[in-house]
Amino acid sequence: MFESSDVLAVYGWDEYFDDAFAAYRAEGLAPARIVRVDRGRCDLVTEHGPVRADTSRVNGPCTGDWAVLRPGDRPVVTHLLPRRTAIVRSSASGRSQGQVLAANVDTVAVTVSLAVPVDLGRLERMLALAWESGARPVVVLTKADQVGDTAEIEAEVAAAAPGVDVVAVSAATGFGVDAFAALLTGTVVLIGPSGAGKSTLGNALLGEERLATGAVRASDGKGRHTTVHRELLPLPGGGVLIDTPGLRGVGLWDAADGLEQTFADIEELAADCRFADCGHHAEPGCAVLAAVEDGVLTRRRLDSYRKLLRENEWIASRSDARLRAERENRYRAISRSLRQKYKHEGRKR
């Protein structure tokens, strides 16, 4: 029978993680959720309160992870429980490895500022990451007080986000905040560029000034990274919130399923193409191109779809090449070891 402490339940502990932790329970270890990661150490919440622990024994701990903690005078994270969801992008270094932005997220709030022209291509890119994570995306249009009627913009955004709730808010006036909060469940993460108003919106959800905020440039609506760490905080209405630093670059990482959901309208049209492998360029009987000609689908959206598909295929090929290189390196290392072993044994004879 699944049971949990009130503290852990507030932070998202449920039967899924309880089952994953079962093997460690008899060893005197404790479950804990990572609230913040900082250079080999992290802050966690346990059923007995907050703890700071060493994370050098685990690979890639992230805010939102559920961890296995060895308590004591010097607490240590010994394992991470399997992630139910994870937001992953290409690493900022350009290496063929993914970077986890947040783990075990239930709702991804893609944050878009109305103080500057909406970049639909960026929005589609972030939605692909959100869908691929396994969480449910929501689009929140911030700074609605800086524009007039938002209905036209909301409709334009909704067309680029099929199957996703879109809501306009103003944290400054409170407009739309309650409607937005009603869409949120479980662990919520705010993602978007600097200056989108994530921290201001987070404070509105938290009901207090917990997150640092800063001004943005009037010329382009960009702001400084007032949020420098990913931090997890409990929401007064239930669930928890992860605020993230502004994303300058949003590279896809193995996001084929996320792209399929982001561009569900194009995928549906493509099912009626004459050829199963239609590339939607100039093929006869292409239902996608016909939709563009008829005005059902915009050329911009089709171009965005093609661009993101090419990018995802490229990063996937890099990942495959890296895995092949790692296998070859392991094979060579084993071969060298065997040669040295046989050479040594030959000398002994």
UniProtKB/TrEMBL annotation:
The keyword Transcription applies. Residues 103-248 form the EngC GTPase domain. Its cofactor is Zn(2+). The keyword Cell membrane does not apply. Keywords: Cytoplasm, DNA-binding, GTP-binding, Hydrolase, Metal-binding, Nucleotide-binding, Ribosome biogenesis, RNA-binding, rRNA-binding, Transcription, Transcription regulation, Zinc. Zn(2+) binds at C273, C278, H280, C286. Its main location: cytoplasm. Binds 1 zinc ion per subunit. Residues 95-250 form the CP-type G domain. Its EC number is 3.6.1.-. It comes from the Bacteria. It is found in: Cytoplasm. GTP binds at T142, K143, A144, D145, G192, P193, S194, G195, A196, G197, K198, S199, T200. CDD domains: YjeQ_EngC. InterPro entries: G_CP_dom, NFYA, P-loop_NTPase, Ribosome_biogen_GTPase_RsgA, RsgA_GTPase_dom. Monomer. Associates with 30S ribosomal subunit, binds 16S rRNA. Belongs to the TRAFAC class YlqF/YawG GTPase family. RsgA subfamily. One of several proteins that assist in the late maturation steps of the functional core of the 30S ribosomal subunit. Helps release RbfA from mature subunits. May play a role in the assembly of ribosomal proteins into the subunit. Circularly permuted GTPase that catalyzes slow GTP hydrolysis, GTPase activity is stimulated by the 30S ribosomal subunit. This is Small ribosomal subunit biogenesis GTPase RsgA. It comes from Actinomadura keratinilytica. The lineage of its organism: Bacteria, Bacillati, Actinomycetota, Actinomycetes, Streptosporangiales. The gene is rsgA_1.
